[in-house]
Structures are given as structure tokens and as C-alpha cells.
Amino acid sequence: MNNSRLIKIVLIAPLIFLSAACQDYLDVVPDNVPTMEHAFANRNEAEKALFTCYSFLPNEANPDYNPAFNAGDEVWTYWPMTEDYFSLDSYNIARGLQNKATPLMNYWDGFNGRSMWQGIRMCNIFIENIDNVPDIADFEKQRWIAEAKFLKAYFHWYLFRMYGPIPIADENLVITADPEEVKVVRQPVDSVVNYIASLLDEAAGDGFSGLPSVIDSRTTELGRVTSVAALAIKARVLVTAASPLFNGNTDFQSLENPDGTALFNSTYDPGKWERAAEACRVAVVAAEEAGVQLYTFSSSQVVLNDAQKQEMSIRSAVTEKWNSELIWGATNDDIDNARPSYWIQLFACPQLDPGITNLSLKGKFAPTLKMAELFYTANGVPIDEDKTWDYADRYQLRTTTSDDVGMQPNYQTVGMHFDREPRFYASIAFDGSTWLMRNGTYNIQSKLGQHSAKRQSRLYSVTGYFTKKVVNWNLVATSSAVTVEPYPWPIIRLADLYLLYAEALNESGQSSEALVFINKVRERAGLRSVEHAWSEYSTNPSKYTTVVGLRSIIQQERGIELAFEGSRFWDLRRWKTATRVLNAPIYGWDIEQSTYEAYNRRILLFRQSFDNLRDYLWPIHEHALQINPNLAQNPGW
């Protein structure tokens, strides 16, 4: 493919033996018995069937196929786009164009060649037939069954997070099933959550059966799931289920099946937070016992100062292959399954070298100004709370000095870019900042006419910011080629799990214990403890001493630590704060200007809107409702 121009692509994940006639999620009947027998005739064929189960995993790393990237408010892109994309669905969701006639990013019926229901169907086929394989050791068979159960749980979870209450497909229907049996109903939220959690428990096993805690065959099996991954995903599921969207949500109390079964429990249950906290505790213990730990950068091959080492600890926690913090990483790619995170790096990286232009570097994955404002000051508190930081004049120009970390000396930029925490400079680049790579440090200069600026109708940041965090520092570009070091996309890493645990502890009345895990994450980020930062620098020094105050701190900590990793999109929904946050305008800098004064003016890019009833859940396709009248449509659609 010509990297200078991406066209709209939908690639179908290879199926080993599924019939091409499987069009609907309701078609759960094995339809080719001779082929089925062949697929489980021996160990090698059965392993191919297991890999087919994996092939339905959504492409989490591709910025156009994961709704959590471009469908929210973290990043923005120039519009309209005629090149440099695989799918426009997520961009259109961000612009308020989701609909029920042709739902965008429709993973229910199938999107990007992946239907979660077909994935579930494949897992059921595998579990039902694996006992027929004659030449497989029992311990290996039990592991493969556990993997299929994990994947089945994950596909249910992926649908649940998007659609809320869903049908449960624990077994495939027999070929003689009555037509009415095929017309399945959605199950209540609590039933779905309990089913997913139970499957993940079965997959994790008890130490003697189930998934391994670590991958021993690292050359051939990295990317396959472990018991730690199963427990961590269970923790995420239960934290989500305990959150306001699914716990005591009265907005959806009218959602029910045609027979009157209520699908949302509108009564708040504090016990759900206690259950989530326990699941997080178990996952944290399992992760740490398996050797998972927060990543810190070290290299004998390059000489870096302390600030640079700190930056690389933050960046490489995401971008270093199979680093110590990764619990489960996505290794699939839509081009050749060998380059995970390839496209997000090209979408994020601007033109770095003023002497080189490479059209593969898009620079269009652009953080919004609200994300730049989200990061803390150097004192570790929000910019509007730090009593030593000039919040009122944050948009006024200042001149940098050689003492300003992460910025070019004798350059002008707004006050908002000064004296910020290390994660700000590690995650975001801007006009006047520096960009550390293994082969050198580059100056980002993006005013009109400069090398990182807009020079045509594409290949530029519409906000003036660039997403440094997701680019591996080994990327090398020449005028004729670009070398990208792929890395598994972090579906979940330890910092995420620590913050989930902190949130569950706080909500279940254990705020002092919650601080322990927040502070672990902050320490790696180069910040003092919450207690110290708020007591010394905040205009609200006792904020962390209340459940409500610490909740706000945890939510902002997640927004910062997990920025641009696909977390914020779902967090805003489960917290039910999207109504407020996603009804705010999208701002950037005036990138088509050449002077310091003109460029550093805040301009409106788009006015987002978010409907409190409609937009928290995906619509089910109208056609699916016509086929199966037992399905209830989500509220507002």
C-alpha cells in the first residue's frame, strides 16, 4: 500500500473453517460437519481453530477501528478527510452522526471484518469439539479451553461495554432449533456481568488448571492470554459494572424486554464496589507475583539526563515491546498481522527533521487543547488549583530559557506549557517543544512555514499538538522510507489496574488504602504523593480526604496516566460524566499563522454535543430488530 494515501479498507479476518453463509449473529448452527471434523482431526488443525477464535479480537491499536481514539474528545483531526484513513466511522461519531439505520462502528453485526457474535460462535464450536482431538495432551487441551473461554468472555464484554445489556450466547443452538429459539432476548445488566465474570474465573483457573500466569514460550506465544490478563479484565468488568452508568442508573429504568423484564437495576448497590475492589486486589496480587511491575527506563546504550530518563519511563511504559508493566497486549494488525501499533505511530508522528519530508508521517492524531489543560502542574495538582501557578494568564506568551525542561530555549509559547508535570512533556508535543528519539532530539516548530506545520490539505495537526506518547523512540524517517518499531498495544497495563483498584477502594470506603496505589503511579511519573501535593500546593488542600474529592483526583489521574490509550472514552461513559465533558467545545491553536502572537490564539474547531439518554450506548441496527422483535432498542434510539 502506498503510505502517502490510505484508502477505506475492510479486511476480513481469516476463517479456518467457518462457512461463508454465516451472515447473522443469530446463525449459530454448525453448518459443515465434514469440515468441522477435519478442523479437529489433530492437534495442528485444532490449534488453527483456536487462532481463529483470536482472529475476531477487535483491532485495538488501529486509530480508525477502535472507537476510543477518534470518537471522543482526546484527539481531533482536520475535516473533511479524503485521504489518510481506513474508516471514517469514529470521526463521524465524534461529530454527532451516530444513527440506528446504519450504525457506525457496528461491532454487533460486524465491523472491520469482525462480528463479536461470530467470535463467540467460534469459541463455542472450539469448546464443543476440542475433546475430539486425539493427539493433544490434557494439560494443553485445558489451557486451550481456558483461552477460548477467556475470548468468549472478552467478546461478550466488548459488546456489553458498547450496548449495555446483551443476549448471552453460552452455547450454540442445535441445527434442529425451532425458529422461535433463535429469537433471543437481551439479558439484564447484572446477569451479563455475572456471566462474564464467571467465565473469566474459569479461564484464570485455580493455579492447577486454566491459563498460565506467564508466557514461557516468548518467541511463539506472546500475545496469548494469561491468568493475570483474565483477572485484570475481570477487575475492569466489575469496576465498570459498579460505576454510575450501570449501578443505580435511573435514566435507563424504562429499558426492558417485550415481556417486561427490566434490563437495568436502577437501585444503587454499594456491594458492587466491594466486589470490584476484591477482584482488583486479586488481580494486583496475581500480577505482582507473576513479575509485573511499573516500568522504569534504563539503557546502557544511550546517555540520558534525569529528565530524559523520566520521560522515557513514561513513554516506554506504552511503547517498549513486552515491557515489565504490560499485562495483555494486542498483537493483531489489519495489514499483515505483524505490525501492531504501526499505523497509530504514523498517524501521530509529525515531520521531525527540518531537512526531511516523509509523507508517511501524518502528524494528524492531534490532542485537543482540553487534554493539554488536563495534565497537572509540576507540583502534581490541577492547573486551576495550584496556588503557585498563573492560571489566569495561561494563554499569554512567555519566552523559554535553557532551564525549561522539554522546550527549546529562547522560544515563545503560551504560559500553559511552562512548569507542567513530566507526563505532559512525555505525552504531548507542541510548537516550541522538543521530541526525544534514540537518534537525537528534534525541535518541534509548527507555525506556518515551519517544518512541522501545515503545508498542504493533509499531514498536519489541526490543534497544534502532537501525540508523542504513542510513538516508539526507535522510529527513523528518511526522505524515502520510514522504519517503525511495532509494539503490542497495551489493552491493560499495571498502572491502569492500580488506578482501577484505587477507584474501587475509594468508592467502598477505603480511601487511605486507595492513596497507596495512586501514589505508586505518581511516583513513577516523577510526582510527590497526593497528600503532599494537595497539602502544599492546592487551593483545596483537604480535597483528598473525602470520597468525593478523592474520586475527582482519581478520575483526573486516570485521564492523565492513560491519555491517548483508549481509556478516557469509556471512563467518561461509565462515570456518566460524558454529558458534561462531551458537550464542551473542541479548541486548538491558530495553526495557519506564522507569528508567535497570531499562532498562539485559541480558536474553536468544533462544538461537540452528547445526548444524556441516547449517546451512552450504541444503537442496535434497525434491521436486527426487524429480524428479531424480542430485541429491545437502546434508549433514545
Automatic annotation (TrEMBL):
Q: Is Acetylation found in the keyword set?
A: no
Q: Tell me the first and last residues of the signal peptide.
A: 1-24
Q: Where is the RagB/SusD domain?
A: 325-637
UniProt xrefs under PROSITE patterns: PROKAR_LIPOPROTEIN (PS51257)
- Domain (SusD-like N-terminal): residue spans on this chain: 24-237
GO annotation, cellular component aspect:
cell outer membrane
Which UniProt keywords are listed?
A: Cell outer membrane, Membrane, Signal
Q: Which residues form a coiled coil?
A: none
Name the principal localization, coarsely classed.
membrane
Compartments reported by the entry: Cell outer membrane
Check the record and name the InterPro entries matching this protein.
Answer: SusD-like_N (IPR033985), SusD_RagB_dom (IPR012944), TPR-like_helical_dom_sf (IPR011990)
Identify its protein family: Belongs to the SusD family.
**Protein's UniProt name:** Starch-binding associating with outer membrane
Q: What is the lineage of its organism?
A: Bacteria, Pseudomonadati, Bacteroidota, Sphingobacteriia, Sphingobacteriales
